[in-house]
Design brief:
By secondary structure, the chain is of the alpha+beta class. The chain folds into two domains: 122 residues, Rieske [2Fe-2S] iron-sulphur domain (Rieske Iron-sulfur Protein), CATH 2.102.10; 200 residues, Naphthalene 1,2-dioxygenase Alpha Subunit, Chain A, domain 1 (Alpha-Beta Complex), CATH 3.90.380.10. It has six helices and 17 strands. The protein binds FE2/S2 (inorganic) cluster and fe (ii) ion (FE2).
């Protein structure tokens, strides 16, 4: 299933090097991304119209994308601007272009626009909506946070993955090894809403003895190691979970000043594979010496989900509810499927 006329986060912005194009994949198509002369990001289909080389295997030359095979150069509109082997004065062949795709940089990701009609002419950039307002996220260079990034590919459909990141009631069973155990009936959703293609849930982190004991071995152990930790952590906390269509989630765990945010782009490589690109922020233990531990925790947390999500059948969620038995405690999954059904009715999910 593909969401049409929508922005997809497809890469970490940090992965794009100045002179080097970047290959990305979305819904089974490959694209080459690069920085143009104005410093903006540009994207074209990753196939040279000359003999079919991957343009992402080329290089960036004076803001244009130069194919690595015979050096044809392409601008951000996809048109060929130079063919080195052509004699000067020969006209540019009419078919010497590749398809350009709108591309943006926001929230630390690079975004591609997946149009309803991919063959239609490139839309006027001003006519497109901006990428969704993912946040709050710390600004780059904010010394109050330590920031890590990573990626992991799962053999699962991207909508199943989105659902997993909106689903809290699996935490006691899936994440007891990484996040501390919680009693499932003690998750207390305080607020839930769906608007502007976004779903949100706020959940009180439980405070009972069972929870505290387990958290003491997990996250709380880290909180308490921070010299500024104080007592705020012992008062419990709040989790904010939000999803922005098409494919970005943000989970924020807030214990007073001590916060962890995990912002993840769930990239549909194709129907059966999803690339999770994550950005992790912590407001405590900001020394780089703690990075290995923090990265290990994110990797473990992701692996715990992966182990279950890759087993789900049917591979694609049945939006009409015939495949699964959803209950009131699955409110976020129900809300997401309803939103997707509305998209489908509008011809925007195919
Ligand atoms: S294949 Fe790209 S220039 Fe020849
Ligand atoms: Fe999970």
């Amino acid at each position: 299933m593909k969401l049409l006329d929508s922005w997809y986060a497809v890469a970490l912005a940090s992965a794009l090097r100045p002179a080097q194009p970047l290959a990305v994949q979305l819904h089974g198509e490959r694209f080459a991304l690069w920085r143009d002369a104005a410093g903006g990001v540009a994207a074209v289909l990753d196939r040279c119209p000359h003999k079919g080389a991957s343009l992402s295997a080329g290089r960036v030359s004076q803001g244009a994308l130069a194919c690595g095979y015979h050096g044809w150069c392409f601008g951000s509109d996809g048109h060929c601007s130079a063919i080195p082997a052509q004699h000067t004065g020969e006209p540019m062949p009419r078919r010497a272009h590749t398809r350009a795709v709108p591309c943006r940089e926001a929230a630390g990701f690079l975004w591609l626009w997946w149009a309803r009609d991919p063959q239609a002419p490139l839309p006027d950039p001003a006519a497109l909506p901006p990428p969704p307002p993912v946040g709050p996220l710390p600004e780059a260079g904010d010394g109050k946070w330590r920031h890590l990034e990573g990626e992991v590919e799962w053999q699962a459909n991207w909508l199943r993955v989105l659902e997993a990141f909106m689903d809290l009631t699996h935490a006691p069973f899936v994440h007891s090894g990484s996040f501390g155990a919680m009693a499932p009936d003690q998750l207390m959703p305080e607020e839930q809403w769906v608007k502007d293609d976004s779903l949100y849930e706020r959940v009180l982190a439980p405070r009972d003895r069972h929870y505290r004991a387990d958290q003491g071995r997990g996250l709380r152990g880290l909180f308490n190691a921070d010299e500024q930790a104080g007592d705020q952590a012992s008062d419990g906390g709040v989790q904010h979970i939000q999803l922005w269509l098409a494919n970005v989630s943000l989970v924020r765990v807030v214990f007073g000043d001590f916060q962890i945010s995990l912002c993840t782009a769930h990239v549909p490589l194709d129907e059966g594979r999803t690339l999770n690109l994550w950005r992790h922020f912590r407001s405590f233990l900001r020394t780089p010496l703690a990075d290995g531990n923090a990265r290990g925790r994110v990797d473990r947390f992701m692996a715990e989900d992966q182990r279950m999500v890759e087993t789900l059948t049917p591979r694609l969620p049945d939006l009409d509810g015939r495949g699964d038995l959803l209950l009131a405690s699955d409110a976020m999954t129900i809300g997401l499927r309803k939103l997707l059904r509305e998209k489908r009715s509008a011809g925007l999910l195919v």
